Amino acid sequence: MRCSKCGREAVYFARYEGRYYCHRHFNEMVERKVKATIRKYQMIRRGEKIGVAVSGGKDSVVLMHLLAKLRRKFPFELVAITIDEGIRGYRDRSVEIAKRNAELLGIEHHIYSFRDYIGLTLDETVEIMGPREERVGACSYCGVWRRWLLNCAARELGVDKLAVGLNLDDEVQMFLMNLMRGDVARLGRTGPYYEEIHEGLVPRIKPLREVPEKEIVLYAVLNDIEVDLSECPYAVEAFRAEIRDWLNEMEEKHPGTKYQLLRSYDRLFPLIAKTYAREIGLNRCKLCGQPTAGKICKACQFRLQVVERARKKGIAFTLQGEP
Ligand code: SF4
Ligand code: ZN
Questions:
Q1: ∠ at Cα 197 (195, 200), nearest 5°?
Q2: Which parts of the sequence bind ATP (predicted)?
Q3: Ligand minimally distant from the alpha carbon of residue 304
Q4: Which of 15, 44, 263, 275 is most buried, most CB within 10 Å of its CB?
């Protein structure tokens, strides 16, 4: 097949718009989408300092490359932040990939580990908390602590905004999952743009939210970008996997479904955000000082639970760092 733009050999067919793309025009199309998203929501302003959260996985690494490219024409500062959760045989490898990519692009790179800032690794947490029926899933600790530590890092490094690698598929999956759980309030908090809701909470931006996952993988492959494609050993989110499969099936049958769902979310977002805005009144956590709706933030609550369980079981471990 031939590129719909220039007639050269095509490497990709975008079913949702019925167009073929050669390597060059595919790159252009992905980059244009990211630029348009950034512009539409004014995600980055000239001269701002942007922290990009890079795990080493495809989305975050491609995001870092795209931001580095954009920075050449539109001046802003860029630093990379990697959270090392302490997952043996998985995160150690992806941290190295993140590091190599940052080096290649000449971007200042900072690694923040659960070990240093929470006091223990995710592996240690799972070991202390015991079998699955006695604790929440590993992803719950991981997600809460990662968000907490990213915010900590962003504040420490003085970044204005934190760019995260969520793509179109992630965004639409999240939309449907929250609808199906009846958690509409949450939809009003994560949306397409992020207003400053608390001075201690660094705003997050999602420049890849209009790029399908498939296109991110292909962008990495075509441009020889080193990414980690392995899966975390704790990843067992069955519900999300079902939604993902169903969405892919719908997209196959009705090309453009994912974009239509995203548009629906974007239209609903201002209404939902307005309705639930009152619920956002945030305080400072009594233990760590980070913003929280209650008295003690979820990250500190989890940490206290693990310390308590370790004490009961007589497991000795050294807590470094204080959240
Ligand atoms: Fe953390 Fe779960 Fe993601 Fe693994 S799959 S990195 S445990 S959130
Ligand atoms: Zn706290």
A1: 120
A2: 53-55, 59, 83, 165, 170
A3: 2
A4: 44
How much is the mean pLDDT over the chain? 92
307 sits in which H/E element: helix 298-313
Structure confidence at residue 30 (pLDDT): 98
Angle between helices 213-222 and 23-40 (to 10 degrees): 130
143 Cβ below 6 A of ligand 1: yes
**Closest ligand 1 atom to the C-alpha of 143?**
8
Name the residue with the closest Cα to ligand 1, atom 2.
139
Annotated domain spans of the chain: 30-283
Residue count of the chain, please give it. 323
pLDDT for 295: 93
Provide the CATH topology of domain 30-283. Answer: Rossmann fold (3.40.50)
Cα separation, 226 vs 98, whole angstroms: 9
How far is the CA of 126 from the CAs of 152, 199, 297, 307, in angstroms? 23, 33, 20, 12
- Is 95 a pocket residue for ligand 1 (Cβ < 6 Å)? no
Whether residue 232 has its Cβ less than 6 Å from ligand 1: yes
Residues 6+ apart with CB under 8 A from 90: 230, 232, 233
Whole-model pTM?
0.93
- The arithmetic mean of pLDDT across residues 199-215, rounded, is 94
Work out the pLDDT band at 315, boundaries 50, 70, 90. confident
C-alpha 167: how far from its chain's center? Answer: 8
Which long-range contacts (C-beta less than 8 Å, at least 24 apart) are formed by 292-299? 297/148, 298/144, 298/148, 299/118, 299/144, 299/145, 299/147, 299/148, 299/323
Closest CA to 260 of 19, 60, 17: 17
Does 3 show up as a binding residue in the annotation?
A: yes
pLDDT tens by residue, 117-149: 998 999 999 999 988 777 788 999 999 999 999
How far is residue 63's CA from residue 133's CA, in Å, rounded to a whole number? 37
For residue 11 the two structure tokens come to 């490497």
